[in-house]
Amino acid sequence: MQNSGNISRLTYYYKSKGKPSDADLVGKIEKIALEYPSYGYRRITAELKRQGLKVNHKRVYRIMRSQNLLCRARKSFKITTNSAHSLKKYPNLIENLTPARPDQIWHADITYIRIATSFVYLAALIDGFSRRVVGYGLARTLSADLTLEALLDAISKRNTEDLIHHSDQGIQYCSSDYVEVLKEHGIEISMSGKANPYDNAKIESFFRTLKVEEVYMFEYETYQEVVSRIPYFIEEVYNKKRLHSSLGYLPPEEFENIINDKKEKNKSHQLVLTS
Fold it and tell me: Could you give the count of Cα atoms lying within 13 Å of 123 in the half-sphere of its Cβ?
């Protein structure tokens, strides 16, 4: 089939699904809300638009309210940080810094997942620019080995040049083994002040999403269940599918791909200009 005029190939093949009825929307909204229980009406509106539907957020809100689909996040809390130690603590390097690229700031933290008889602990690192989870580890105890596993996972997959690692002042992040790995890779060390979680709000937001959209939905019984499900949620759902309002309602992986494509195009353009 031939394209015509100045219409792009993407536009030529795309056919809008038009304005759906409320009855049609209810089913689609329920399906999205079931897969992503913490999605509010704006995120669901963005997902519907990605599916080619003509709909605005006011209509989606009205339907969600009438169907009792507006999310109500559960709150839970367990202390995972012990900053009462004599190990060296580092200054906050990101207090007034807004990341402008991937792998400029990594935020690191630990959370817990309740199982039938105890807890499982998750250490994770998230990119401050793209919100992508870049490394993680799971363990039965809050040991330094857990955070080190997550760090090494991130280092094995990402660029560590001109990178700042930010965490709280927990003993796991101040341990000599952890700090040594950071220094070996030329990664700058940054830490929030005592009892000041605001600089790590991005990874706290990820933990809340994980709890609401995965952990609370399945109520794990065993350590094996956690180990089998959490990696899938992080890698296949959170990084690849879940929309983030701060990224223009794109998933982290897609957002990074767009940024990288723009960089490659700029490089190619510069080569043409200098040749």
Answer: 26
Question: Which of 27, 25, 59, 30 lies closest to 42, judged by CA?
Answer: 59
pTM of the model: 0.72
Q: What angle do CA 136, 137, 139 make, to 5 degrees?
A: 155
| Closest alpha carbon to 47 in 62, 70, 30 | 30
Given the structure tokens 């009462």, which residue do they identify?
Answer: 84
**DSSP-derived 3-state class of residue 220:** coil
Question: Is residue 1 over pLDDT 50?
Answer: no
Q: What kind and span of H or E run contains 120? A: strand 119-127
pLDDT tens per residue, range 134-148: 999 999 998 889 999
Cα dihedral value 176, 210, 100, 268, nearest 10:
110
Mark out the alpha helices in the chain (DSSP H runs): 9-13, 22-35, 41-50, 57-66, 144-157, 171-174, 176-184, 201-210, 216-218, 223-232, 252-274
